[in-house]
Amino acid sequence: MLIRSFQPSDEPAVIALWQACDLIRPWNNPQLDIQRKLAVQPAMFLVAAADQRVMGTVMAGYEGHRGWINYLAVSPTERLQGIGRQLMQAAESALKAAGCPKINLQVRDGNDAALAFYERLGYGVDPVVSLGKRLLADDSHTADV
Ligand SMILES: CC(C)(COP(=O)(O)OP(=O)(O)OC[C@H]1O[C@@H](n2cnc3c(N)ncnc32)[C@H](O)[C@@H]1OP(=O)(O)O)[C@@H](O)C(=O)NCCC(=O)NCCS
């Protein structure tokens, strides 16, 4: 298995993976999300792959103050083998190399498995409330992350 930057030919497999991992919501268009990421720090959009088989993804980004993580996913059939940890280590290395001092990330309410995973990797719950405001309506829904 190799962790490398996303390539356009990965798109169908990546979207299928996100669907299998229940990461896609009606208000997030995955093709558009990929298109936007390819315009901003594309090297920080990572996939775990063996040949063309995509087993995991993580989308990282640094905006000059904090690093952010999105679309962390490992195929349901490949979990608990360390792939998620390796993806996060690669994302953390890329962010650190860019000068990023701290990572923030959001976990949806009820995703206790993801919380347990991040805690194993040394992440803690910050005393903050997460706010959001949509600037572009990708479809009729307007209120989620
Ligand atoms: C969260 C996710 C990426 C973890 O991927 P993974 O490859 O199974 O994780 P790893 O095998 O690297 O596990 C790393 C550590 O977390 C622990 N861990 C992973 N999943 C866990 C779970 N569901 N419950 C408790 N601990 C868990 C592992 O036991 C391991 O601990 P250890 O290294 O101390 O032994 C994967 O479950 C997933 O894709 N979930 C669906 C998508 C999702 O919720 N993404 C996060 C959005 S915020």
Labels describing this entry:
alpha+beta, Aminopeptidase, five-stranded mixed beta sheet, 30% helix, binds coenzyme A, transferase, Bact_Acetyltransf, GNAT_dom, GNAT family acetyltransferase
Counting helices, strands and paired strands, the structural category is alpha+beta
| Residue runs with pLDDT of under 50 for 5 or more positions | none
How do the strands line up in the largest sheet?
1-2-3-4-5
The number of domains is 1
Q: What is the element string, with H for helices and E for strands?
A: EHHEEEHEH
Radius of gyration: 15 Å
- Record field, number of beta strands: 5
Proportion of strand residues: 15-25%
For the record, give the distance between the C-alpha atoms at the N and C termini, rounded to a whole number: 30 Å
CATH architecture descriptor name: 3-Layer(aba) Sandwich
Estimate the helix proportion, in percent.
25-40%
CATH class: Alpha Beta
Largest sheet: 5 strands, mixed
Which kinds of small molecule does this entry bind, naming each only once? coenzyme A
**Shape, per Cα inertia axes:** globular
Oligomer: single chain
The name of the CATH superfamily reads Gcn5-related N-acetyltransferase (GNAT)
User: Tally the helices: what do you get?
Assistant: 4
